[in-house]
Amino acid sequence: MKGHWQAFLCALQFMTLIPVRLSGLPDAHTQARAVLYYPLAGGLLGALLVLTAQALSGLPEGVAAALLVALWAGLTGGLHLDGLADSADGWMGGLGDRERTLRIMKDPHIGASGALALVVQLLLKWSLVSAMIGGSLLWPLLLAPIVARAGAQVLLVTTAYVRAGGIASHYIAQVSRQPVLMCVLGVSLLLLLSHPIALLLAAAVLYLLRRAMIRRLGGMTGDTLGAGIELLETLILCAFVALPLT
To answer: Which helix (H) or strand (E) holds 222?
Structure first.
């Protein structure tokens, strides 16, 4: 039981800036087990967003949405946004070449494509969150981080990791495929009951993202994983706003 609790805390530490205290430096086994708890970490993040949205109910919709998006980025430390920006720079500047793409993605400096991707992503999130606040539709803020991290689980257990010295290179081989996929199935059923079209869209986008990673890089990196999380979060919000079922 203690091992699972440590794994959950490790998932929180990796996926968010929520302060947690581990019993020690997590080893590769704990980090691999933590993958199972990524959606749960997303659920805690989403719950904080919903609670904050309710607390900001007296503010104008645009202001409340801006504060929520800022909180969303702050709670994750901008980790996934950084991955999105690096991936955009690599894809545009790599000119179809694998090594050039990886080299650009590793560069800590942000380029024009990365900056544009960040602006568009944050603007989309702000407009979608603003629309949800206006329509008193807050619970997709809980669901989107969960689904996006389940998508990250799919990538982790089905796609090769191409950086030998990357952030996940020392533990990814130890991730247990079956329990992770069972977790993904549970999240998929939750999304199916909530918004079947959103499930189809998420599956299609995840498939296309994985195919693009394999064709360009031969697999995934931490940056493309973060980009996938950001894109899936926005997709889920967009589905609930643009394709309401009621």
So the answer is: helix 222-242
Q: Which amino acid is at 160?
A: A
In the three-class reduction of DSSP (H, G, I as helix; E, B as strand; rest coil), residue 130 is classed as: helix
Residue 129 token pair = 């969150």
pLDDT of residue 158: 94
Q: Which two tokens stand for residue 167?
A: 């952030």
- Mean pLDDT by runs of 10 across the 246 residues of the chain is 83 90 80 93 97 96 98 96 97 94 94 97 98 95 98 95 72 85 96 96 98 96 96 98 87
Is there a contact between 242 and 234 (Cβ–Cβ < 8 Å)? no
The whole domain housing 38 covers: 2-242
Cα gap 86→75, rounded to integer Å: 20
Number of domains in the chain: 1
Residues 41, 44: Cα–Cα separation, whole Å: 5
97 CB contacts (<8 Å, ≥6 apart)? none
**In the numeric block, which tokens belong to residue 26?**
């997590």
